[in-house]
């Protein structure tokens, strides 16, 4: 839930994993570029095209260039969604065809190159969806958008920063991480914090649209006497393992390995170890704290506390409302969302889930106007209905999503005995502040809860406060929240 998922909004159908995993919170196309065959005519440069998604035009740009080892690499922009510099996973030119692969969203582009290698006629594929997409080369040089991120820490640092690695208990996964610790000759051992990312495959800095929130947090805390461990998710960066088959329970085990590693370090005060979890990480933190006695404190940044199905229903409505879908229509959509989720989760086989989902949709469709149906789902005919339902079923039957949607965070929160600080942005449309902070306070009466004005899900000061704005804001993380966390951790640690 760096960017959680909204199955319902038709404007987000094709790019829903970008829009809502922003973990996954966040985010759209992940890297490791390979080049298989390159013809004599270079295809490097900018390639522009437009997807027509049920009447909505979505401009896209591929930036294709050579890396230092003379291999083709590519990134992707969706300017209308404020998504820029999103790395693709593979680029291939074979005979007269261009292929660009996006493994994380199960997507790809296939196009037939023109004779002059300046046009491509083809299609975009994602899951069961295929849409026409023609590209035109607009520049021979790949130019990417440069963001201003003034908060990103830059060396030299006033503390020690080390790349480290460690294994989980059965040695099946090796984790790549950064450990930062203060340089104080008087203090021998420091309070330490493990950072846990939100949903989606994240690097150790929780990089979202060039915002490196965890690097900013680590910099702030370490400058103030608190050691920090931040870790690449499994299958990301220098961490091994398969992300695509993992669930929240698996990520909790990964985080436990981080706590165990901190306890082995000579400069860590093992009586003062805590966790800061963002979004889904704010769910994993109480999962661990409910079972372990060696966690002194947890900080929940937009941590979910409602049953996840309730949270996701609210998110589907709130995110769609932020794009301009009428609230009245979305209130009519709520029962469809919940009934579809319930029907799909109860059926383990996709072939049987789809007919059940279709029955649920048809019943709802017959009770609502064509305008309401289109505004909330994008469905206008049998073809668009099939696209919507296939996408819904495919998403909900993924290992992570299926497990995640059935979690009740209250089960873990009620068993937490350590110190708790829970913070939400008042303008968060992914994990609503009032509902979730209220649930945390009910489960943990002694928890300190804070709703911070004018902040979104990424803890940025926002204006429109919708998900499209994340990329355009220069601020990475609210200074007020950084100071709040610092002061609170220092107070509960008692050693500083």
Q: How would you describe what is shown here?
A:
The chain contains 13 helices and 19 strands. The chain is an alpha+beta fold and 496 residues long. The protein has 3 domains: 31-139, Beta Barrel (Lipocalin), CATH 2.40.128; 160-307 and 407-493, Alpha/Beta hydrolase fold, catalytic domain (Rossmann fold, 3-Layer(aba) Sandwich), CATH 3.40.50.1820; 308-404. The strands form 3 sheets. It has a 9-stranded antiparallel sheet with strand order 4-3-2-1-9-8-7-6-5, with no helix packed on it. A hairpin with a 2-residue loop joins strand 13 and strand 14 (211-212). Helix 6 (327-346) runs antiparallel to helix 7. The longest helix is centred in the C-terminal third of the chain and has 20 residues, at 327-346. The radius of gyration is 23 Å and the shape is globular. Mean pLDDT is 88; it is low at 3-41.
Keywords:
496 residues; alpha+beta; Lipocalin; Rossmann fold; 3 domains; 9-stranded antiparallel β-sheet; 8-stranded mixed β-sheet; 13 helices; 19 strands; 30% helix; globular; disordered N terminus
CATH class of the largest domain: Alpha Beta
Spatial extent as radius of gyration: 23 Å
Question: What is the tally of beta strands?
Answer: 19
- Strand content range: 25-35%
CATH architecture label of the largest domain: 3-Layer(aba) Sandwich
- The stretches of 5 or more residues where confidence is low (pLDDT under 50) are 3-41
Largest sheet geometry: 9 strands, antiparallel
């Amino acid at each position: 839930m760096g960017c959680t998922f909204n199955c319902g909004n038709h404007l987000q159908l094709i790019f829903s994993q970008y829009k809502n995993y922003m973990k996954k919170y966040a985010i759209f196309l992940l890297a490791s570029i390979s080049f298989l065959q390159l013809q004599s005519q270079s295809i490097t440069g900018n390639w522009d095209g437009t997807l027509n998604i049920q009447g909505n035009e979505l401009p896209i740009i591929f930036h294709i260039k050579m890396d230092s080892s003379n291999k083709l690499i590519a990134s992707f922009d969706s300017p209308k969604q404020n998504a820029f510099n999103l790395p693709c996973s593979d680029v291939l030119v074979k005979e007269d065809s261009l292929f660009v692969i996006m493994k994380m969203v199960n997507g790809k582009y296939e196009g037939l190159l023109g004779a002059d290698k300046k046009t491509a006629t083809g299609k975009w594929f994602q899951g069961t969806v295929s849409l026409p997409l023609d590209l035109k080369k607009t520049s021979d040089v790949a130019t990417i958008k440069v963001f201003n991120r003034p908060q990103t820490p830059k060396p030299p640092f006033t503390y020690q920063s080390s790349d480290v690695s460690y294994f989980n208990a059965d040695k099946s996964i090796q984790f790549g991480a950064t450990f930062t610790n203060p340089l104080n000759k008087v203090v021998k051992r420091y309070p330490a914090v493990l950072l846990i990312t939100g949903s989606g495959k994240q690097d150790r800095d929780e990089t979202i649209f060039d915002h490196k929130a965890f690097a900013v947090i680590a910099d702030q805390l370490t400058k103030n006497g608190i050691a920090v461990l931040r870790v690449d998710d499994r299958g990301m960066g220098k961490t091994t393992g398969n992300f695509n088959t993992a669930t929240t329970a698996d990520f909790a085990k990964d985080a436990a390995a981080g706590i165990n590693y901190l306890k082995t370090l000579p400069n860590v005060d093992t009586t003062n170890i805590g966790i800061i979890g963002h979004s889904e990480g704010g769910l994993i933190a109480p999962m661990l704290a409910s079972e372990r006695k060696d966690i002194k404190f947890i900080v929940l940044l937009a941590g979910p506390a409602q049953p996840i199905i309730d949270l996701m229903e609210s998110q589907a409505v709130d995110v769609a409302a932020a794009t301009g879908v009428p609230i009245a229509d979305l209130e009519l959509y709520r029962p469809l969302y919940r009934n579809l989720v319930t029907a799909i989760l109860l059926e383990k086989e996709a072939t049987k889930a789809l007919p059940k989902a279709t029955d649920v949709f048809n019943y709802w469709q017959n009770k609502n106007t064509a305008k309401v149906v289109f505004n909330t789902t994008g469905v206008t005919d049998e073809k668009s209905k099939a696209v919507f339902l296939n996408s819904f079923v495919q998403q909900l039957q993924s290992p992570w999503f299926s497990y995640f949607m059935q979690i009740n965070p209250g089960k873990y929160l009620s068993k937490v005995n350590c110190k708790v600080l829970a913070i939400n942005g008042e303008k968060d449309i992914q994990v609503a502040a009032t509902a979730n902070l209220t649930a945390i306070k009910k489960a943990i009466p002694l928890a300190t809860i804070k709703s911070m004005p004018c902040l979104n899900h990424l803890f940025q000061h926002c204006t429109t406060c919708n998900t499209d704005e994340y990329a355009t804001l220069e601020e990475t993380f609210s200074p007020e929240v950084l100071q709040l966390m610092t002061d609170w951790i220092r107070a509960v640690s008692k050693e500083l």
